[in-house]
Amino acid sequence: GQSFAEANRAKHAGVGLAFDIGGRDDHSFNEAAARGTENARKQLGVKVKMLTAKNGETEADREQRLTSFAEAGYNPVIGVGFAYSQSVQNVAKDFPGTTFGVVDAVPTGKNVDAMVFAEHEGSYLAGVAAALKSKTHKVGFIGGVNNALIQKFQAGFEQGVRDTDPKAKVVSQYLYPNNDKGFNDPAAAKAKAQGMLDSGIDIIYSAAGQSGAGSIEAVSKVKGAWAIGVDSDQYRQPGLARYKDHILTSVVKNVDVAVFDLIKSCEQHKPLTGIHTYDLKHGGVSLATSGGFITDVQPQVDAARKKIIEGQVKVKETPKS
Amino acid sequence: MANHDIHLTVRRGTVHALCGENGAGKSTLMKILYGMQKPDEGTIALDGEQVALHSPGDAIARGIGMVHQHFMLADNLSVLENTVLGAEKLHGIGAGARAKIREISDAYGLNVRPDVLVEDLGVADRQRVEILKVLYRGARTLILDEPTAVLVPQEVDALFDNLRELKSEGLTVIFISHKLGEVLSVADDITVIRRGTTVASVEPAETTPKQLAELMVGSELPSPETRESTVTDEEMLRVQDVRLSATDAGGEVRTVLDGISFTIRKGEVLGVAGVEGNGQAELVEAVMGIRTPDGGTITLDGTDLSRSSTRARREGGIGYIPEDRHRHGLLLDAPLWENRILGHVTERPNSKGRLLDLAGARKDTERIVAEYDVRTPGIEVTAASLSGGNQQKLIVGREMSHHPKLLIAAHPTRGVDVGAQAQIWEQIRAARREGLAVLLISADLDELIGLSDTLRVMYRGRLVADADPAVITPEELGSAMTGAASGHLSASDDSADTAARGGDAQ
Amino acid sequence: MSTSTPTPTAKKNAAVDAVARSAARDKVLLGIAAPVLAIVAAIVISSLVFLASGENPFRAYGIMADYGHYSDSQVWIVNKAVPYYLSALAVAVGFRMNLFNIGVDGQYRLAAFAAAAVGGAVALPGALQIILLIVIAMLVGAVWSGIAGLLKTTRGVSEVITTIMLNSIAASVIGYFLQDGRLAVKDGNLLHTKFLPESSHFFSFPTHPKPVEGFVVVAVLAGAVYWFLINRTRFGFDLRAVGASEPAAEASGVSVKRMVVISMLLSGAAAGLVGMPTLLGESFQYGTDFPAGIGFTGIAIALLGRNHPAGMAFGALLWAFLDRTGSRLEFEGYAQEIVGVIQGVIVLCVVIAYEVVRRYGLRLQQRKVGEELAALARTGDGSADNSDKPEVTA
Amino acid sequence: MSSELKSAVRPAAPATGGRRKLTYPWILLIIAGALVAVSALRAVSGATDLTSGGQFGAALSAAVPIGLAGLGGLWSERSGVINIGLEGMMMLGSFAAGWVGWQHGPWAAAAAGILGGALGGLVHAVATVTFGVDHIVSGVAINILALGATQYLATLWFGQEGSAAMAAGGNDKQSPPMSDMPTFTVPGLADWLNGIEGHHWFLVSDLAGVLGGAVTGVSWLTLLTVGLFVGTFFLLWRSSFGLRLRSCGEAPLSAETLGVNVYAYKYAAVLVSGALAGLGGAFLAISVHFYQDGQTGGRGYIGLATMIFGNWRPGGVALGAGLFGFMDAMQLRSGGPTVHALLLGLAALLAGLALVRLRAAKRAQAAVAAVAAAVLVVWYALSDSVPLELVEASPYLATLLVLALFSQRLRAPKAIGKPYRRGQGH
Ligand SMILES: Nc1ncnc2c1ncn2[C@@H]1O[C@H](COP(=O)(O)OP(=O)(O)OP(=O)(O)O)[C@@H](O)[C@H]1O
Ligand SMILES: Nc1ncnc2c1ncn2[C@@H]1O[C@H](COP(=O)(O)OP(=O)(O)OP(=O)(O)O)[C@@H](O)[C@H]1O
Ligand SMILES: [Mg+2]
Ligand SMILES: [Mg+2]
Question: DSSP assignment of C2-38, as one string?
Fold first, then answer.
């Protein structure tokens, strides 16, 4: 019969945002991306449509989602999360007139904007702060899933700690070797953090999506211990309001900025394409200061930041094994 | 319709026997009395008062207790637990109940130990637990549905002593049996049921077994008697020193078959007697290859089958009529023609090579249905919709169609009505004339004595005695079955007369 | 043996014909009754759910129907249904003999992973490569489910439990090897096995705008093989016999233990195919994002399709259709999660409806047989009565 | 009838290898032995977390949801109904807990979890008891339905744009957070035990660790769970209600003839089963303060495994759940290194097994065990950690191993999974 595309040709419909499994309110990068479109809606007056991935999706499911956006005339179409890497690359070929964006991945394509972040650089700063604030000289890192992305967080954090306090010990552990459950299991993070705290660790940096709430809670039960948040400024998250006095800082990934940039460029008919790295220099990542708990070490943190921006310090993307 | 126009009056403090052929509706009637099934119409009055029984609970509350045709016991619970179940209010579930059980057991000589697991009990013990369960509830009216079917004569006598004891205490007993000798010996009144309706009420003193039999089936009872011997010298089956042990649920290893040896010749029927649970079922399964013995050899017509699979044995010429046709003989939800394939899927006309021959199987099923008089409207109906007798005829037809050298028949006529019974006997006899060897297991001693050329008695996994069916009586056989006698059983002086022999059957 | 025929043959035949005809009619009617009953119930319940959540069910159904009738949607649906169907076949092989292979999920993932690892390392020419990979996948799937089969036959452990455990263990095994430096390569933030060479790409049908995956042919073939195996071969009869009654099958000469192992192996081999359309037609590598959970969907579809190849094809398409419309519904402002509710309701309604209809059918048939025989006996009068007791000697 | 009688065969004399029954003194002895072994292991390997109070506390809270699911399975299966829908019932429980909890607090959440799970149980009972659907089929269907329903309702109730729930921190996949469930710590005792534990004395410190875990910061729900286990034992094995319920799983037809309303007891059992699983789900939600999509993570299935593992007895289920909890807590808290120490323990166990088998003259089995033990020792010596994947898989491997070794000694209720229809007994 007739194809859907033929039946539903449309003009400019707005921005299409396709989330990863976490969904728009994941307190993490999906949420940040949503914030970016929200800003665009307010400032540029564009319409926004958001769709969310389901568990156990296939490549085809993601392609279908992106295709339905493009067919309905949405432009740009943005996939949030590295899972969209392949599907964006595939679909972008079929819709040369549409600009596609993807967060955390670098697919190729003439009409594709790849937005990647220097998580390791932000994590380095968190390492500096942790090394300076730890009284036991033992700090911990909890990763949700042992994949390449999370390893960037680990690598940066470990390097930051070591460069600042060579005596300090960093214990890095993952909740799951290879299972997305790791971003979704606060109970596991809680137990893991508890184990770390029991062994004398007093600062824990968790890069574990939603699971992070568990480790923050465990930290909040121990006097003098600090948690370091990730992706968004977790001090300000309503769901974590109860523990905010224990959130030292957060490594913020400004996905909203990247998304906003892309939308704006499209509105101005000069769409961004190619790889755009949002690093420390370009304000793509930063260390949150809410709560003022790191005010006392801010000078050292700023110094480290400067060294990275100037290239004096090169932050590694993979942890030393 | 299972029952219609039933009229039954039972006097208090008597033993009232109910008899009728298989499927006459006796069990159905008793289930109605016990509240397990609802009558479409009609009334039940107890002590002159009309009662409505909606569930067994109602019946129990009115002092009716029932011992079912098939044991209703939970193996994994103790005797105590089985007894107090549903009647916990009476004496609790602890010490009080235990004391009460001992009391009842002593009062009626039931000899029941409250704390053993039921699975560790033998048949007669289980029977007594069933009776105890009823008495524990203070029943004044006892219904016993074929309580003697699995008992040896001595155990039957003991049971009857128990019943007389109960009667003398003023209890009422309704007793169901088709063993007419038993009925006449224990009953005060007799009611006969035929095709779901009461046909007569008679006084035992004024009735002979022959009259009773005619009332039951409308004609004379068939007899399994075999006239001339067809036994040849050619050996068909040789079983030598077969041993088998099994691990039970508690992890304990038990010897189930202990050095079993026998031979069956062409044209011979070897009957094995024994109380159920003494290893007959295991023997059959060992010969069929369903169980692997620990040692010993099984040779069929000169071929050693000890290591062969069940299928190879079947292909080698063993026919099998299993004792539990629903569990082992049929696929109840499958149509008749698929049931015809069962067990012979590798043979013609059921298959060609590795493929099924559906047309061939269907056609042959039609033939079996016609030839063996299986009452069915067609071969596409499921086996479950046939009556038990017709299911059995289908099985017999199926097994006979492959011209077996050896037929293993375990309780071939159990639960089958007299008409079908006669047919099955006749078919076995006919095949035997053509040289078939038969291994017959049966709890019906008359059938066993009547059909067999040779008799062996099995007790605790061993063949302990042998007997000549021409002279042996059920009583003697029974005493060997309980382990009281062994070796070669010869006829005793007074029991050789035919009156006693045919007593139950005629 | 040949006793008197109970009734005149002609009369009996007529009666038999009538019964056979009415039995066939009943069978068809009952066969239709169950799915109709289930679908009606499912629609009613789903509508209530829509209404309760303040949505208009008819608009939603309209959107779904509208979505389903476009050609490109149909391509999406067919492609999605193929692995579902294969998974259902794998489950059904077990179901036909009362084995619950809950482990199809682990089996197909491990199988696809092994095939991907091998495929990334070797490059045979032409079709050989594809054949090699499919064989490897089927072997690995079979071995993994075979463990459950062996544990069941040798140690008496329920396959339900072992396959659940094996699912988790499979995930760990894959996790161990799917690491940089072991069998995986790092690609941006993803870890996956090396890309398969061109020769491993399965063909596809060039439909517009997206192609239909060629694996649909394999699925149809697998369905046909399944049907033939089960219904037309001795092996299939043995398998069904075990499913219908284990003791009866054992007594009939089937080695139940052997059948358990063989059918677990077959089921696992079929499970090995489940990941192939994705691997050979879509992703060309096994990565951390390889789809999981199709094994569980297969259970649902086998239940929907009553283990019948055509029924399961319908079930797979229905499931895929519902999955795909979820995205469309979300586009139109509904919560796509409603699809999960509809799917769950359908499965529950189907299993209940089939059971109710089955039981009713059995009772109906029993009564009919009883009546039929009673009628025969009446018309057959005295002769029938006599034939009950042939040639009795007292 | 013959099938019922088969087991009645009594031989002249019991043949070889009668096995001793596990009585309570024996079980206590085994537990004590295990403690000694573990503390020896701790001393040898230096993996102090093996017996720390924190480890046992974490083990306890990891064990509770699994144990509740297993206990739920026990109720249902003791009445003869297989319950593979435990996972779905847990999902309903955790969802309901999240839904009620953020507005009314954790106790209300626990109650809601119980109701939610019981609702799942009700569906299972209707399908299996009333309609006679195959138990496993119905269970699978319930798991699918529960997943769909909770996900859908979460979008409506937690993630609706502009709703109060969303403002309170809820979203499509997660409920707004609820307040803490109170915990209790026995004052004095906890600190004292903690102090002893710190000394790392052989056995004494280990025992202090175990006890410390049991008296420090324990959720009241954990205590409730312990009560439920004890209560279940007394209710099912020491009361007439329990006798009737178990009789439905052993011999429903007999129970029916004695006036037991089998349907009612099966319904009750399956409802309780769902309620317990629901409470297990609620425990998960309460301990992390919110419901979350995918929160149950297969614990319902694990619960089922512990039930079989525990031979359908509450003590066994508790033991199984404890083992799972222990492994789980260990891999989460300290990962590879501590599990690494267990290699040595396993090697010792296998060596022991080899000796026992050797004495029973089973050479081949003894050899296999000995070789395996040697391999483990070598592995232990040559490495200082085990792969995370192995740690993750260890509970499942342990279950498989136990079932493979001891399945013959397990005894399921006799009529389990069999269809039962009132008035259709013969
Ligand atoms: N509800 C029913 N409607 C019609 N027929 C039924 C019904 N229930 C049972 N029957 C049939 O009624 C007949 C009587 O069965 P019943 O079990 O009462 O016989 P019985 O006299 O106890 O036989 P047996 O000696 O074998 O125990 C059987 O053929 C049975 O199939
Ligand atoms: N509701 C019913 N109405 C009429 N006939 C029925 C009904 N239910 C069952 N029947 C018939 O009753 C018979 C059921 O067979 P069943 O096995 O109960 O017989 P049975 O009495 O045990 O037979 P046998 O005495 O030969 O063992 C069938 O012929 C069936 O068609
Ligand atoms: Mg009867
Ligand atoms: Mg019958």
Answer: -PPPSS-HHHHHHHHHHHHHHHHHHHHHHHHHHHHHH
